[in-house]
Specification:
The structure holds two protein chains of two kinds.
Chain A: E1 4-9, H1 19-27, E2 36-42, E3 57-64, E4 73-76, H2 94-103, E5 110-117, H3 130-142
Parallel strand pairs in A: 1-2, 1-3, 3-5
Antiparallel strand pairs in A: 4-5
Helix pairs in contact in A: 1-3
Chain B: E1 17-24, E2 27-35, H1 41-45, H2 53-56, H3 65-80, H4 86-112, H5 127-134, H6 140-152, H7 154-160, E3 169-170, E4 173-174, H8 180-202, H9 206-211, H10 215-222, H11 225-228, H12 231-241, E5 254-256, E6 259-262, E7 265-271, E8 274-276, E9 281-282, E10 289-292, E11 304-305, E12 328-331, H13 340-347, H14 350-359, H15 363-390, E13 406-414, E14 417-426, E15 429-436, H16 438-442, H17 454-459, H18 471-479, E16 486-492, E17 495-500
Parallel strand pairs in B: 1-16
Antiparallel strand pairs in B: 1-2, 3-4, 5-8, 6-7, 8-9, 10-11, 10-12, 13-14, 14-15, 16-17
Helix pairs in contact in B: 4-6, 4-7, 4-15, 4-18, 5-12, 6-8, 7-8, 8-15, 12-15, 13-14
The chains are: A alpha/beta, B alpha+beta.
């Protein structure tokens, strides 16, 4: 039985949007205890709904839009995330998924969101900015207790 | 962790399609579809092992990965002379049908229908109903569709382990056999979906709905409370009140590669393939398919080339008259459209044929056909389950006897229309791989003869009441089920506006 999932969203081809993947890579070095799953979720659109099924808690790791403090780490409430405005199927981002989860019947997990503020939008330029790369390591460290049975 | 208040927007880098339209006196006089991203899967495939396409090409699309896997598998089977056993075909069909179920209702009720909730329509007699049904995250149909479509793709997970991007088909069959547990689970999922479709989407029993075969019968049904209050009934009333049945027909030539495969004769589709030239349907001849790059950012060549002779070598040249990363596929010289309308018209759905004969194809009929196709998907999915349950002992995989060099094509119908993969294997590795997606057919740029693509033609003549809120363009583009996130640029009296559609 999966109790908790850590879901790392983002696209490493697009600069700091890949911070979720970097956190995933850092966490992958550790063996998760029973009941914990760590998933590199990518940018899956509506398929992401399935990642929130059959677990008690989902911790989402994702990049935040640039706002002047690159690398800032924020823990956010799901209702604080705006739905993206792109409406076609591939444009359904995390904001849409969170709203959809809220609207769907049936049990939903407790959702925590850890955001890391990007330095800038850099489409098709792989690699993190220094501040965001450092923040990725810090987030992986902060999530460390999840790897200790019964903690976190 | 510190809690920080931010004004947030978790952005994704999006916008792989732009549509430029020129308005004169509020009417679109010219349109250009611009594919803004180089896909490059064809180049990625060169030099790889022949089977690599089974893992790589389902990643072309997050919505129709099953269709890409199916096409990639068929191409290898064609090259190697492999005939899969009937049970494998049934499982492949079942999964492709499930992918269609989720797409067709999501696209219709989560993306197309919410446009009727635009405040522009607040004085329309159907507006309050549209809000109650289609308003994002609040409307009853919207919420129920979110829930029902999430369930449908679990059918694929039973055989493929995951959806999307699964790789459970291979030349010779599928990786997992059917068993009673899977069949019972799939039947329960299908029953739930069918109940939703009958009671909420069409307001009629499936068999009676499938038996409906004339436009007049449909218009009579639309007058009955059961259908009029259903999701499709409400959509039809709103769309037809806005004349969307007379809007944006696009090109009159239609193409279908044939939907799903006959388990006992896998070369034959369950719904016929063909080319409709505006007057009659001819059998499909894949040899007539060719792609032009005259207005695309690829290394230039003359005229059109069949995919086995084609190439996808990028050659970005932003200055000049080339304007898209999409090629321009043509059937012979014909610009064609593909999708559920083409699939059902060519495949023999009498109701769609009657409506097409009565009114021609417009934005409403394209959308209507997408909802109508769900009935066929449910019927064939149940048929596949029944046939699998009838005799579970048949093989699900027969290893190919020969895996050497050769060339093959795999043609199928994806959610958005005709999808083809072409492969040539030489010295044990892929020498050539070409993919033509449904959206490449529909959203193609101009060809060597200067003929615009289907979307480009469909937008010409559309009247836009308010260029600051071009909802009419939204209706048309969404009726095409765009595979790509798109943005519209408008030129009107020298003014350039930018819209997310």
């Amino acid at each position: 039985m999966i109790r908790r999932r850590i879901l790392c969203f983002g696209n490493p081809l697009h600069g700091d949007d890949g911070v979720g993947a970097a956190v995933f890579a850092a966490l992958s070095a550790r063996k998760p205890p029973e009941g914990l799953e760590v998933i590199e979720a990518g940018t899956p659109g509506p398929a992401a709904l399935a990642l929130f099924e059959d677990c008690d808690e989902a911790i989402v790791v994702d990049a935040l839009a640039p706002a002047g403090s690159p690398g800032r780490i924020a823990q956010l409430a799901p209702e604080g995330i705006d739905a993206e405005t792109t409406p076609a199927p591939h444009g359904m981002g995390l904001g849409y998924i969170l709203r959809a989860l809220n609207a769907l019947p049936g049990p939903r997990p407790e959702i925590r969101i850890i955001g890391i503020e990007a330095a800038s939008h850099r489409p098709f330029q792989p690699g993190l900015s220094p501040a965001v790369a450092a923040a990725a390591g810090e987030v992986a460290r902060l999530l460390g207790p999840c790897f200790e049975d019964g903690h976190g | 962790m510190a809690r920080v208040q931010l004004n947030l927007n978790l952005n994704r880098v999006e916008g792989d399609l732009e549509i430029g339209v020129t308005l004169e006196d509020g009417v679109v006089v010219e349109a250009r579809t611009v594919g803004t991203m180089y896909r490059g899967f064809e180049q990625i495939m060169i030099g790889r092992a022949a089977r690599d396409g089974l893992v790589i090409t389902p990643r072309v699309c997050g919505i129709c990965g099953t269709a890409h896997l199916y096409a990639a598998t068929l191409a290898l089977e064609h090259a190697w002379g492999v005939t899969p056993p009937p049970h494998a075909v049934r499982i492949r069909n079942l999964c492709l049908l499930a992918e269609g179920l989720q797409n067709d209702l999501r696209q219709t009720l989560l993306f197309f229908a919410p446009d009727f909730c635009n405040p522009r329509y607040q004085n329309e007699p159907w507006f309050d109903e549209a809000l109650a049904g289609f308003e994002p995250f609040r409307g009853a149909f919207y919420l129920e569709t979110l829930a029902a479509t999430r369930e449908a793709v679990k059918i694929i997970a039973h055989f493929g382990g995951q959806w999307p991007h699964s790789s459970y088909m291979a030349p010779g069959g599928v990786t997992l056999p059917a068993d009673m547990r899977k069949l019972i689970a799939c039947r329960a999922l299908l029953d739930g979906f069918q109940r939703f479709y009958e009671t909420r989407v069409i307001g009629a029993p499936l068999d009676a709905w499938l038996a409906l075969d004339t436009a007049q019968d449909y218009f009579a049904l639309l007058e009955t409370p059961a259908h009029a209050r259903s999701a499709l009934g409400l959509l039809s009333r709103a769309a037809r009140a806005l004349d969307l049945h007379k809007t944006a027909a696009g090109v009159g030539a239609l193409l279908s590669f044939g939907a799903w495969r006959d388990p006992e004769n896998p070369d034959a589709p369950l719904l016929a393939a063909g080319f409709y030239d505006g007057a009659a349907t001819a059998p499909l001849d894949q040899g007539r398919i060719n792609e032009h790059v005259r207005h695309s950012w690829f290394r230039p060549y003359e005229g059109g080339r069949h995919p086995w002779k084609g190439e996808t070598i990028p050659n970005y040249a932003p200055d000049g008259d080339r304007y898209s990363w999409a090629k321009a596929p043509r059937y012979g010289d014909a610009v064609v459209q593909t999708g559920p309308l083409a699939e059902l018209l060519i495949g023999g759905d009498a109701l769609v044929a009657s409506l097409y004969a009565e009114e021609g194809g417009g934005a409403w009929l394209r959308q209507f056909a997408r909802v109508r196709r769900v009935a066929h998907e449910l019927r064939f999915a149940r048929q596949m389950l029944d046939q699998l349950a009838g005799d579970l002992s048949g093989p699900h995989f027969l290893p190919p006897a020969h895996e050497g060099d050769g060339e093959g094509h795999g043609l199928t119908m994806a959610a958005r229309g005709a999808l083809g993969h072409w492969i040539r294997v030489k010295d044990g590795v892929i020498e050539k791989y070409q993919i033509i997606t449904p959206t490449a057919w529909n959203a193609s740029p101009r060809d060597s003869a200067g003929q615009p693509g289907h979307w480009e033609q469909s937008l010409v003549g559309v009247r836009v009441k308010d260029p600051d809120d071009p909802i009419e363009i939204g209706h048309v583009i969404r009726s095409h089920d765009p595979c790509l996130v798109c943005t519209v640029h408008m030129l009107d009296s020298g003014r350039k506006l930018h819209f997310g559609v």
